[in-house]
Input
Amino acid sequence: MTTLIDGKKVAADIRGELKKKCEMLKSVAFDVPGLVTILVGNNPASEAYVNSKAKACDEIGMRSKVEKLSAETSEQELLDLVKKYNEDYSYHGILVQLPLPKHISEDKVIEAIDPRKDVDGFHPVSVGNLVIGKDALLPCTPHGVVELLKRYKIPTDGKHVVVVGRSNIVGKPVANMLLQKKEGANAIVTICHSAAKDISLFTKQADILIAAIGKPNFITAEMVKDGAVVIDVGINRVEDASQKKGYKLVGDVDFENVSPKTSFITPVPGGVGPMTIAMLLQNTFLAYIKMTNQKLN
Output
């Protein structure tokens, strides 16, 4: 029987846990973690996402600030603003919303963020620490995947995890997280990508299949073995005249046909998606604890 992995519930549980910790911090340290989000330009999707982050911070009692800059902002102006917040210790997390306008180097901006405040987990120092197994602020979406496996008590030790997709945002980091020699990981990990002549040769071996390729309904029932755990990270818009907006959201997995074969599966929406902001909040809290050496009993 298939169990639906409810990312909305897990994310709400994490926010509730963080809210209690923030209330405790207020009483013992008279302070709370702070997150600043920088948005350049007027991309509607980015703006909605930034607003949802600020709302989530307010909900759990974290300090939050949104810096909205015009699309004409120069690279140097953005770098100067990042430097300002690197030196402002009332904010413990800095997040620059991507994508940036084409005239600004995303790499330069990410590398300018103090790694201690890198709550997106994209800085090369953060990535390096993740790969070699040192303590690091982990990228939010892949960390959300690992947290879902943990909270649903899905064993990973010695299991074959197949990751479809090799992006720096999801595929590579989630593979690195799950191969670490520690509890909640210690898996045998295979990464599949477009160079595979037949990806199904690999996906059919997966005890845990993680789809993060950005192609709607790419994973079909024939590509999944019976009893597999399927984690769908994809969020794709497909045309649907029956919907008011003219489209619907689907994942990288053909949910309707794949789910009967699985032991656990995430839906889209409502699976991995809600975990991203929850893990961002958790990273901001962890950054605060590390930077202040604050102890919570």
Q: What stands out?
A: The longest helix spans residues 7-29. The chain has two domains: 29-115, 140-273. The domain at 29-115 is CATH 3.40.50.10860 (Rossmann fold). The chain has a mean pLDDT of 95.
